[in-house]
Amino acid sequence: MRVSLEHMARYGVAGGSAAVVDLAGFHLLTAGGAPLLPAAVGSFLVAALFNYIVSSIYVFNTPLSSHRLFAFVLFATVGLVINVSVTVATADLLGIPALLAKTTGIATAFGLNFLMNAVIVFRA
Question: Within a 10 A sphere around the Cβ of 71, how many other Cβ atoms?
Fold first, then answer.
């Protein structure tokens, strides 16, 4: 697949929407008393499913499939490790507030996720 600026812009919209889902879920979980690590993982997984559906339909114009979903989740797991590691490290080690730490985790994983999705998961 040839990656265009349009794909990047659309992925930005999809990823931005998924980030809102992730942050909102994280906020609800932590406000409800969930510990930092489970809240970060849970909100990320919900956002990953949302992101797969939006990326399939809106960004890459491909049908939903179990094969792509598996690949997406596999690579999202790499993003999850990066996202959560940065979240926990910046919150616990640097003392950054949890919501800002989570935002940093999301931003760090964003570029890598786009590259893996454009080149591998949704390639023509």
Answer: 17
| Tokens of residue 40, six digits | 């970060």
- Is the CB of residue 11 less than 8 Å from the CB of residue 121? no
Q: Residue 83 in contact with residue 40, Cβ under 8 Å?
A: yes
SS3 assignment, position 87? helix
> Could you tell me the mean pLDDT of each successive run of 10 residues in the chain, 124 residues long?
81 91 96 95 89 94 92 88 92 92 87 86 84
Instruction: Evaluate whether 56 touches 62 at the Cβ level (below 8 Å).
Output: yes
Closest CA to 20 of 39, 58, 47, 49: 47
Contact 46, 53 (CB under 8 A): no
Segment holding 88, helix H or strand E: helix 66-88
Count of CB atoms within 10 A of residue 30's CB?
18
**Model pLDDT, residue 108:** 86
Q: What is the CA radius of gyration of the chain?
A: 14
